[in-house]
Inverse folding.
């Protein structure tokens, strides 16, 4: 089971967790802004920024 988890998710859970949190934040922001709110125009850029922040978090050097 451990080998399958490492094969699917890699060595870290940070990136999949960050992407899940980004999608959850995007879903809430979309629901709050309405059908023609600010999310309609800028939502893709906000989601991109959230995913890139999660990637930066996942790639930060491990502190030992």
């Amino acid at each position: 089971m451990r080998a399958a988890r490492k094969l699917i998710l890699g060595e870290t859970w940070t990136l999949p967790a960050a992407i899940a949190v980004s999608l959850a934040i995007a879903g809430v922001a979309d629901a709050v802004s309405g059908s023609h709110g600010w999310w309609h125009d800028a939502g893709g850029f906000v989601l991109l920024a959230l995913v890139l922040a999660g990637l930066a978090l996942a790639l930060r050097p491990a502190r030992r």
About this structure: The CA atoms of residues 30 and 55 lie 22 Å apart.
